[in-house]
Amino acid sequence: MTVKETFVNDMKSRLKTREKEIADLKSKAESAGAGSRIDIEEKIAELELKQEYTRKTLTELRTANEDRWERLKHNVESAWRDLDEAYREALISFA
């Protein structure tokens, strides 16, 4: 397995895990009070946008030639960091 394939598989696994975590947050949001529920739903919507962007960037990387792979790898890592940070902030809202 190449470095690129290993990276793609790792990111796909991370995204799948994060997808489940976001689904769990959605379930918790349903039982939240009306005031906090709106805030939580906004954070979840933001998470879903960031998740979709990360997934799209990863798909682009997967099909990239070797010349573009390193630059796109950086983009995927950056998108993941943004998603991860937003997820951690959303978790604080549930505390």
Report on the structure:
- It contains three helices and no strands.
- By secondary structure, it is an all-alpha fold.
- The protein has one domain (3-94).
- Helix 1 runs parallel beside helix 3.
- The protein is elongated.
SSE order, one letter for each helix or strand = HHH
**Fraction of residues in H or I helices:** over 70%
Structural class: mainly alpha
Query: Count the strands?
Result: 0
Distance between the termini: 41 Å
What about the largest sheet? none
How much is the average pLDDT?
Answer: 90
The geometry reads as elongated
% residues in beta strands: under 5%
Summed up, the domain count is: 1
Q: Which residues sit in consecutive blocks of at least 5 with pLDDT less than 50?
A: none
What Rg is obtained from the alpha carbons, in whole angstroms? 15 Å
Tally of contiguous helical segments: 3
Give the gist of this structure.
By secondary structure, the protein is an all-alpha fold. Helix content is 91%, strand content 0%.
Task: Give the helix/strand layout.
Elements: H1 3-30, H2 34-62, H3 66-94
Salient structural properties:
0% strand, 95 residues, 3 helices, mainly alpha, elongated
